[in-house]
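re: that chain from earlier
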Amino acid sequence: MAEEIYDVISTNVRIFGRTLDIAGARWLGYSGSGIEFQTRARKVQVDILGISETNDLSDFAWIGVFLDGSDVMAKRFQVRRDLRTYEVLYNPEGKPHTVKLVKLTETRNDKVALSCIRADEPLYPAGAREHSILFIGDSLTAGYGIAEGHTLSEDPAQYQFTTAEEDVTKGYAWQSARMLDASAQFFCWSGNGVISQYVEPSSEVPATDNLMPSLLPYTDKITEQVARIYLKAHGWKEKPGVPALTYLGQQGDDFRPELVVSNLGTNDASFTRNVRVREQHFVQRYLEMLREVQRIYPGARILITYGMMETSLSDACNETALLGDYQYLQLPLMNPLQDGIGGGGHPSTATHRLTAEILTARIRDMMGWPRTETAGDAEDFFDE
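^ sequence. v structure.
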């Protein structure tokens, strides 16, 4: 069969995560967004547009390719600037495979749009999971700084971040979803918070640009703004009457989480510093944000978690849970001497794995979800 070009739409692939359909391309937004499909194609390539504001290697987005439900990444690649073609599957024997492409890096870094898929055999959307979870968080949820080779002798303040050391699939949230065989969506932003982004110890003023509550209602505010500016600069004519920003659900996104796990506050703590009036403001705004989550996703249960890197806002997070009638889980602090450490003083892969086991046990108990087998592979699909 000759090569065919397939649109990145739900009749060809399963689309997951927070994504946008703009100008006929599928823009991958927050960490953990992507596509999954089944095919017998001998070769599959994807045309991907990369938008880089800095053209710096440390900012380029990364995409991981997973095959047949495996947790082991088959390959990963940087998405360079402009429209390029990337090979994601070489399968000369034409065996059936399930192919999953995952955006490993954050929306705050370079932007990514899947233009089309090139394959010599048809594509079929992979099946969805039985359960669904929305993870809200910061760098801990995004898998910031996850890389081997860092030591306790390093000064976190001197850490030079690069997107090559970020991987949402190694983080506790993704690992928990895998253990639960649940579909997951991620709304996370490193350094961000409820009332303040991370601030230096010398600052007495909160950093309030694009805080998580202000970003929540939109599918992906920042990616959409950058995409529209780029496309208009390249001659794209927008249809009259189209809203400037896309709210959740406006493009037919049918993701309805049964559970929302929110892990925020670590960056707010850089500003609150045990000052009670600041902590009270944090509780008030956090409660307002989670009530908005409930409005957007009626019926979803909420689990607030906190810990891993610091504990000064543990009581405030627990208070938020009590006021909102949510559940609360205190996560243990990381133990670098025992489990190692990641970049910038962040948790190691071992810490994330241990945290995922603790969180998974709590979710099973809270939701009554039994242990299940993972979804069938491509052989099962094509045998039907």
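The two ends are 22 Å apart (CA to CA).
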